[in-house]
Amino acid sequence: MAGEDDIAIRVEGLKNAFGDQVVHENLDLEVRRGEIIGVVGGSGTGKSVLMRSIIGLQRPEAGEVTVFGVPMTGESLHTPEAEAIRRRWGVLFQNGALFSTLTVAENVEVPLREYYPALDQELLDEIAGYKIVMSGLPVDAGPKFPSELSGGMRKRAGLARALALDPELLFLDEPTAGLDPIGAAAFDELLHDLSRTLGLTVFLITHDLDTLYAICDRVAVLADRRVIAVGTIPELLALDHPWIQEYFNGPRGRNAAQSAERAGTGRD
Amino acid sequence: MSDAADFTIDDQRVLRLSGEWTLARLGEVPRRIEALDTPPARIDLSDVPRIDTVGAWLVHRLSRDSGAAIDGTNADAAQLIDQVAKADQATTVRAEHVSPTTRILSQVGLATVTAGQTLVGLVGFFGAILISFWSVVRHPRRFRGNAVTRQFEVVGVDALGIIGLMSFLIGIVIAQQGAVQLRQFGAEVFTINLIGRITLRELGVLMTAIMVAGRSGSAFAAQIGSMKLAEEVDAMRTIGIAPMEALVLPRVIATVVLMPLLGFYASLVAIVGGGILCWISLDIPPATYIQRMREVVPMTDLWVGLVKAPVFGAIIAMAGCFQGMQVQGNAEEVGLRTTAAVVQAIFLVIVLDAFFAVFFSSIGWI
C-alpha cells in the first residue's frame, strides 16, 4: 500500500446509477502520483462514467472521491480547495470537445484566460504556440478552426488545451480511438514523453491494447460494476478472471503483446 | 506553500530566480522581466524549487533574447527548459490581419456569390423535385404514402392549434384597430369589409405561411441536415433509395396540399375572431355580421388566397429541404442552414406575394 502522499486519486465505495440501471457499486480505485493508469472494461461498464464522477461532471449516488487528498464529492464539490484542484487537472474528451467557434490557439488560451486574466496577450500567444508544437501539431495549426482539422489533429489540439494550465493530472477518454495505427502510435509516444517530462499522472480510458502495452504503468479492469483488479499487465495475466483472460489472451491481446515485445521496449 | 516567483539582478548582471516558477505563482514576473533595463548575462535557477513549462518558457525566452547562460538547474528544470526550447518554433497563432476595407469588400463579394449560388441551387433543386415527381407519377408504386401521411400530420394537424390561436388573435386585432380608425368617419360598419377582405386575400395565407415556415420549414432543414451529417442520406443512396423521393417529395407534397387548407382555416378563424370583437364592441350581432360578410366579400378574394397558398407551401418546403441537403461538415452547419431556410422561405413568400398582388389586380380581381 502506497503512502497517502503518493495517491493522486482515491475513489471509495462509489455508486452510480441511472434510474434502475446500476453502473457502479462499491467501486474502489487508487491512482498513484506520476503513473499512467489505463482503465479498461467492456462496453457499458462505465469507464467514462467513472471519469466523469472523478472530475465532478456526474454526481455519484454514494461514495467518496478525493483528488490530491481533497474531497471532491457531494458538499465539497464547490469548496475553494476543490476549485483549486480543478486547475491542476486537464481533461481530453473523446472527440476533443474543442470549442467550434474558436481557433485552435484560442481554444488553448481559454483556460489560461479564465484562471489567469492578468497574463498579457503576447505571452498567451507564446504559450499557446509552444503547447501546440508540444502536442505534435504543425506550426501553422494555431489560426485554424476545429472543423478544418482531421480527427487526429483535433485530439492533439484537445490535448494542447488539456495541457494549457500545466496540469499535474491528465484525464484522457479514449485518446487513440478513431486514429489510424501510425497516428495512434505517435499519440502514445507523445503521451509517454509528455507524462515523463512534465511528471504527469495520467488517467487513461482506452480500448487500445497497444496503448496499454506501450505506455501504461498499471491497468485497472472494470467489470461487475466495480474495479475487479489493478496491476501491471503480467500481474493481471496471472489472475483467473474470465474477462481478463479473454481480453489479454484473445487474438488481439496476443498480437499487441507480441508487437510490444518485438518493439523491445514495453514499459520502461 | 513556498514563495511566489521572484528575481533579483546584481552588478554582474546575474539574474537570480527564486520561488516557484509555476503558472499559478508567477504574478507580475512576466511584466517585470519585460521591463528589465539590462539584459542578464547569466540566469541562476538554484533557488527555484519548482518550475513548470510556463516558467521554463520565460527562462528560455530570456536566455534566447539576451544570450544569457542558464545555471543551477536541477534535472527536471533542465529537461523542461530543453523541452520548451525544442517546441520554440516559428508558429503562427493568429490569422493574418486583414484591413477592414478588404474584409468588408470580400464579405460583400462572398455574400453576393453565395446568394447567386443559392438562387441557382434552388432553381436546380426545383427541377430535381419536378423530375422525381414525374418519375413517381410514372411509377406510382414508388410513391411513399406513409411518409406523406406522416408529414400531413406533422405539418398540418399538429399546427392547427397554434395557427388557430394566432389567426383568432389577428382577427381581433384587425377588427379592433379598424373599428377605432373607421369610427372617426362614423363608418364602423366597414370594419366587416376590412376583416373579410384582408384575411381572405392576404393575411390568412401570409401569416400561415410564416408560421409554417417557422414550424415546418425549419424542421425540414434540421431533420434532413442531421440525416446528412449522420451519413443517413448517403446510406439511402447506396441501398438504392433516392433521397429526393424518400425525404424531399413527401414533405413538398404535404406542404403544398396543406397550405391552402391551413390558409383557409386561418382565414375562417380570423373572421370568427373579428366577428366576436364586432359583436362585443360594435354591437353587430353575428347574424348581421355573416350577412354583411357575404355581401361585401367577393368570391375572387377566396380564390386569391387559395391560389397563392400552394405556391407558398412549395417555396417553404423547397427552401427547407434544399438547405437541409446542403448541410455538410459539422453540427453548427445544421443551425446555420435551419436559420437560412426560414429566412429564405419568408423572404421569397413575401416577394411572391407582391407579384401576386400586382397580377391579381391587373386581371381585375380587386
Automatic annotation (TrEMBL), chain A:
GO terms for molecular function: ATP binding; ATP hydrolysis activity. It comes from the Bacteria. CDD domains: ABC_Org_Solvent_Resistant. Keywords: ATP-binding, Nucleotide-binding, Transport. InterPro entries: AAA+_ATPase, ABC_transporter-like_ATP-bd, ABC_transporter-like_CS, P-loop_NTPase. Residues 9-249 form the ABC transporter domain. Gene3D superfamilies: P-loop containing nucleotide triphosphate hydrolases (3.40.50.300). This is Putative ABC transporter ATP-binding protein. PANTHER family: PROTEIN TRIGALACTOSYLDIACYLGLYCEROL 3, CHLOROPLASTIC (PTHR43023:SF3). The keyword Repressor does not apply. The keyword Nucleotide-binding applies.
TrEMBL record, chain B:
Keywords: Cell inner membrane, Cell membrane, Membrane, Transmembrane, Transmembrane helix. It is a multi-pass membrane protein. One of its GO terms (molecular function) is phospholipid transporter activity. The keyword Cell membrane applies. Pfam families: MlaE. One of its GO terms (cellular component) is ATP-binding cassette (ABC) transporter complex. Its main location: membrane. InterPro entries: ABC_MlaE_roteobac, Permease_MalE, STAS_dom_sf. The keyword Translocase does not apply. The chain crosses the membrane at residues 108-134, 154-175, 252-282, 302-322, 334-360. It is found in: Cell inner membrane. Belongs to the MlaE permease family. Could be part of an ABC transporter complex. This is ABC transporter permease. It comes from Edaphosphingomonas fennica.
